[in-house]
């Protein structure tokens, strides 16, 4: 590779994906379009330290692979699933930089997650590793007050009032999740009896 080649623009869609749903996929697709991304890497969390009662990483990883398989620009990384200990985005971004030294990274978050970012590990170092793109999400104000404006962008995306919490709850109550999650994910949930006892 010569120094004159443009850097690849790579989105990073981090999430617990328990399960992955169309809100995640639309967010990634819209950011890819608006920011001219060459690739979006979906990174299922390993051990999300701010959540409890999360499904096995392998289930969440496989559902993410199924959901993204048809999009040639979408890929899935195991860096968080395979790392021991709590999952921190600082480690995710360092690992992805090691794997893709020529990439410019764009970390994608929803409006709810960006307001929590000041609670994340080593937040001041995150700004050097990626540009952050916060997308709109129904029920959450899209605000980045207090965050460095040169490092964080806001993007309005088509509103999908879908959450993984609601999907799990629907499955546990015998309601369908067809069209909230990709068809293959509906079938995976059913085949592996996921979320049958979630409140
Ligand atoms: N419907 C949505 N629209 C826009 N962004 C979303 C949407 N759902 C999730 N996100 C964003 O995707 C990322 C990963 O979300 P996550 O996997 O925690 O899903 P979730 O639906 O928020 O899950 P849960 O209900 O279990 O908290 C977060 O940055 C979150 O803000
Ligand atoms: O780095 C942290 O301390 C940190 C704390 C909470 C969440 N995150 C990341 O934010 C992304 C969305 O997380 P979640 O829990 O909303 O699925 C995911 O990539 C997490 O690893 C990161």
TrEMBL record:
Top class in the EC scheme: transferase
Signal peptide range: none
Function noted in UniProt: Catalyzes the reversible adenylation of nicotinate mononucleotide (NaMN) to nicotinic acid adenine dinucleotide (NaAD).
This protein's pathway: Cofactor biosynthesis; NAD(+) biosynthesis; deamido-NAD(+) from nicotinate D-ribonucleotide: step 1/1
Entry similarity comment: Belongs to the NadD family.
Residue ranges annotated for the Cytidyltransferase-like domain, each copy included: 12-170
Xref: SUPFAM superfamilies: Nucleotidylyl transferase
UniProt keyword terms in alphabetical order: ATP-binding, NAD, Nucleotide-binding, Nucleotidyltransferase, Pyridine nucleotide biosynthesis, Transferase
Name of this protein: Probable nicotinate-nucleotide adenylyltransferase
Catalytic reaction(s) noted: nicotinate beta-D-ribonucleotide + ATP + H(+) = deamido-NAD(+) + diphosphate
Superkingdom as given in the UniProt entry: Bacteria
Pfam family of the protein (one): CTP_transf_like
GO molecular function: nicotinate-nucleotide adenylyltransferase activity
EC number(s) on file: 2.7.7.18
């Amino acid at each position: 590779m010569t120094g004159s080649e443009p850097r690849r623009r790579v989105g990073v869609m981090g999430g617990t994906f328990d399960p992955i749903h169309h809100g995640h996929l639309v967010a990634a697709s819209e950011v890819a379009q608006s920011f001219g991304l060459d690739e979006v890497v979906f990174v299922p969390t390993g051990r999300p330290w701010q959540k409890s009662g999360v499904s096995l990483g392998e289930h969440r990883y496989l559902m993410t692979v199924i959901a993204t398989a048809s999009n040639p620009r979408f890929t899935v990384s195991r860096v968080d699933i395979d790392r021991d200990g709590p999952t921190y985005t600082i480690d995710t971004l360092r690992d992805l930089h090691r794997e893709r030294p020529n990439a410019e990274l764009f970390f994608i978050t929803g409006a709810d997650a960006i307001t929590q970012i000041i609670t994340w590990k080593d937040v001041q170092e995150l700004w050097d590793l990626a540009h952050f793109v916060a997308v709109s999400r129904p029920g959450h104000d899209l605000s980045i007050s207090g965050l460095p404006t040169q490092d964080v962008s806001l993007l309005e995306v088509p509103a999908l009032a879908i959450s993984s919490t609601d999907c799990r709850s629907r499955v546990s109550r015998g309601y369908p999740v067809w069209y909230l999650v990709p068809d293959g994910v509906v079938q995976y949930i059913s085949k592996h009896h996921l979320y049958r006892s979630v409140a």
